[in-house]
Amino acid sequence: MPRPRKWLAILNMVFAIGCRHCPLMENIHSMSEEDLVFLSRARLLGFHFSVLFEHSDFQQTQLECLMAIYLLCVGQINRASKFSSMALRSALSLGINLRLTDPQTAEAAKEARGRLWWPIYSLEHLITSVTGRASSVSENICSGSVPFPCEEETFEHPETKRLLQDPTLRDTHLRPSLFVHHLVDLNLVTQALMNKVDSIEGLRQGASRTEYHVQKLGLKMDCWLTKLPPAYRFTLPDAGPWHLKHPQLDDLAAPFVRERVCLAMNYYSARIILCRPCLTYNHTNTQIQASRPQSSSSNPDLSSRSNLRSEMATHCLQAACAFISILPESPDLS
């Protein structure tokens, strides 16, 4: 029985992404062009002309997401943004961003819907973070839960079924998919601050409202950091506010070091985005306040606001220094 065209297209896209990933994991110095062969096959199988006029389906949405990931891997950011938006619109039309409460649907099928939605969400968030363009997603666009910490091949195991039915047990299992759970959780907070603070909406709301969102989302990031399992923690308990030493990230042979590095870089990047408006405000308003030296003392609210912005500007600098401290002293440029 011949395989469906879209299934074969998905398989070829997985192979194409794998070809780009292999040189990063193995000592391969010559870049092979095998990924272009798989890419061409996927284009012929899954992106023919009639697809543009067909209704969205689950496999086509998967294919669009994989194409966006591949284009992002090869540095084609504009094309990746295009396919990411296509995958997002397809996902919204299928409603996989919504929680499915049908009791007749298996828990594994519900989880599969969420596992397609959250990569699309995270990919769109990553691309908009890199490009600085307006985002198509918001913090209220989805009602589904974050991915469960279990591998797909174990969906039929009794322990996994119990885990799918009881979300409170997910943090007790340290598995690779638990890393995705925490990464998605951080992406939700970061996307909220990009929509509320680092956006046109943030400029229109005024300074007081922006400061409120900065403080609120800053507390959410602190809460996220405290909830990390010990194996994924990248900060020391008594390291102070600067976090310039990361012994948990120095031993590259240690378990889960790759996950810790990824979480650390995403966390400090989010901190920089969160506090950057206060840093910019302090810089542009120093001369104005200097010309009116008595204004702060005569207005307690203005003084309090100035202190808050100075504090957040310091946090921005601390996050930037912490991010730089993660980078290796001698990078491998081979």
TrEMBL record:
Source superkingdom: Eukaryota
Single Gene Ontology BP annotation: DNA-templated transcription
Domain Xylanolytic transcriptional activator regulatory: 80-155
Record key words, sorted: Nucleus, Signal
One Pfam family matching this protein: Fungal_trans
GO molecular function, one term: zinc ion binding
Nucleus as UniProt keyword: yes
Signal peptide residues on this chain, from the entry's feature table: 1-19
Protein's recorded name: Xylanolytic transcriptional activator regulatory domain-containing protein
Organism: Penicillium canescens
